[in-house]
Amino acid sequence: MRLLKLCLALFAASAIAETSVWEVSDGERRLYIGGTMHLLSAADYPLPKAYGEAYRAAHTLVFEADVGQMSSPYWVGQMQNAIMLPAGQRLSDQLAPATWAAIEGYLATIGIPAASIQGLSPAGFVTVISVIALKNAGLEEIGIDSFYMEKAQAANKQTLFLEGIQEQLDFIAHMGEGQEDALILSTLDDISSIDELLQPMVDAWRDGDMQALDELGAAPMREDFPALYKMILVDRNRRWLPDLIALLATDPVEFVLVGALHLAGPDGVLRALQAQGYQVRQLP
């Protein structure tokens, strides 16, 4: 479930659970980092208390990008451009016949005419069909980043962003280049077992189980789509690290909210901060 997991996270319960919120400090100054999921179900609210504690302690909230702007007409148009083929081209012509047949078969099961998606690029199709599958599985509520963006704006808290919306659209537009057929077939295969795969990821996120998150979400991507893994996770984590260190050098407390998969595994932000000598403490 490579892209499906990325859409959630872009994300072994215990008797005393941890959470996906960490305090990072240098002994004098601190910030909080929380892992987010971009779509949730109603049952996922209220969020674990550690999120509220970090929010109340923070002067500034830091997001991946300005999710509030993404619904503006301009950026909706830019998103459409990012996932569409040039005029006159068709998705079926970009793929192997077997891949297109698999797409037609799946769309028939959910009542979507294949002709209606012919203008999508391969990456655009994967993006759209993943979001549809997640919403059909019950993930219809706004995610943690949107939830806290609204709270921060209502409370007049300062907001900062680690990257621009155009950067995120560029990731989508170039996703899976050179492996389009494999990415589509893998996504369709994972959608077929979405009900069994989603709950373990949600449980791992809620319990702050980074090892489980890495095994469920990041490790399959590392193995099957290493270029996608590098572009979506590794490269962005490395670009964010100097910004996080700069935030740690200031007195105000920040609460940084990024997709939970950015915090997990050997290339995660938390491990990078520990390697720089910062203290990282998981909140219970």
Describe the structure.
A hairpin with a 4-residue loop joins strand 1 and strand 2. With 284 residues, the protein is of the alpha/beta class. The protein contains twelve helices and eight strands. Helix 4 packs parallel to helix 8. The chain is globular. 52% of the residues lie in helices and 12% in strands. About 4% of the residues have low confidence. The protein has a six-stranded mixed sheet with strand order 6-4-7-2-1-8, with helices on both faces. Strands 3-5 form a two-stranded antiparallel sheet. The protein starts with a helix and ends with a strand.
Return the string of H and E elements: HEEEHEHHHEHEHHHHHEHE
**What is the approximate shape?**
globular
Major sheet attributes? 6 strands, mixed
Strand order of the largest sheet: 6-4-7-2-1-8
* pLDDT averaged over residues: 89
Distance between the termini: 29 Å
Our estimate of the beta-strand percent is 5-15%
Helix run count: 12
Strand elements, count: 8
Low-confidence stretches: 8-17
Radius of gyration from the alpha-carbon trace, in angstroms: 19 Å
- Helix share bin: 40-55%
Structural class: alpha/beta
